[in-house]
Amino acid sequence: EKGGYEWFMAKEIQEQPQAVADTLLGRTGESGELVLDELRISEAQLRNVDRITFVACGTAAYAGMVAKYAIERWTRIPVEVALAHEFRYCDPIADERTLVVSISQSGETMDTLMAVKHARDLGALTVSICNTHGATIPRESDAVLYTHAGPEVAVASTKGFLAQITACYLLGLYLAQLRGESYADDARVVLGELQEMPDRITEVLDRLDRVREIAHFMADTRSVLFLGRHVGFPIALEGALKLKELAYIHAEGFAAGELKHGPIALIEPGQPVFIVVPGPDTPHGLHGKVVSNIQEIRARGARTIVIAQDGDTAVEPFADEVIRVPRTSPMLQPLLTAVPLQVFAMELANAKGLDVDQPRNLAKSVTVE
Ligand code: M6R
């Protein structure tokens, strides 16, 4: 069933273009508008929403963090991301105008399920973004938006994650459409460009040889840092989580702007640092700010492994390695930049002789609190 691959994870990484394509499939109408009838929450109720809270754990929560940037921009509705196990116990604020969106690949994660039940008790509208048909969380929710990534077997989530980001974006664009928001220009672009993402992801997959080599060189590494900014920040967190769970290496993800508030003290000669660089056209000059961060840490001896868009030459003077991804609009970058980090963690685990599909101490779905 591994289809000729050594591990399910390798297979599932390769299936990511299809996972995204299938999640998009059949969800746009003839004139390009989004059609999400399956949501089965009345348009009036959705128009009434004045707060969105994502509840999820682990990688699924990072999908929510990515989506927060996009959905707030497109809908102007405040979005919060809560770890499901914290949500329940923090006396959360939610009522019938709150849309609580759970994200869960398995649909069986106990922490997330209990958060959904709690949200319902508070009167919130609950939507489940889930990859498993008929699982408990979608059954306990008012509505469901399935991701169509196909079964994910490896403990480490990969195609599930990209499909979750895709589904969250569909939900955000749909809410913007419903509410008649004059789409921010980038939302229009994203809607069209989303359809092209499967091809872009395939391009990333076709150029990962160097990442594999780097992983094999780094088999003895004890600590790796990941930096990102804006939608690249949750991707940095995801890169670190993958490395922890698969290769048992201490890893931390940071928002690049946070460096000078503490983490830069960790930089010593030879410290490997991955940097997810926003595209040069990202608003607010964020690209330049991250390039400065790379320069700062390189000056302190960091070994910089930079993930940057094609044509971004500004990073080159400060990069020990550059991993290239195709150009996209800023909100869509996570669908590309996550991929080399998945492959890096998988190959490092392999280089250390570890069980890629079934890391120690972990289960595919965490059905206990
Ligand atoms: O099935 P779920 O999406 O609810 O699982 C949530 C997390 O347990 C899961 O994403 C976990 O963090 C993965 N092993 C990460 O690769």
From TrEMBL:
The active site is at K364 (for fru-6p isomerization activity). Its EC number is 2.6.1.16. One of its GO terms (molecular function) is glutamine-fructose-6-phosphate transaminase (isomerizing) activity. It is an enzyme of class 2 (transferase). Residues 42-181, 214-359 form the SIS domain. It is found in: Cytoplasm. Keywords: Aminotransferase, Cytoplasm, Glutamine amidotransferase, Repeat, Transferase. It catalyses: D-fructose 6-phosphate + L-glutamine = D-glucosamine 6-phosphate + L-glutamate. This is Glutamine--fructose-6-phosphate aminotransferase [isomerizing]. It comes from Flexivirga alba.
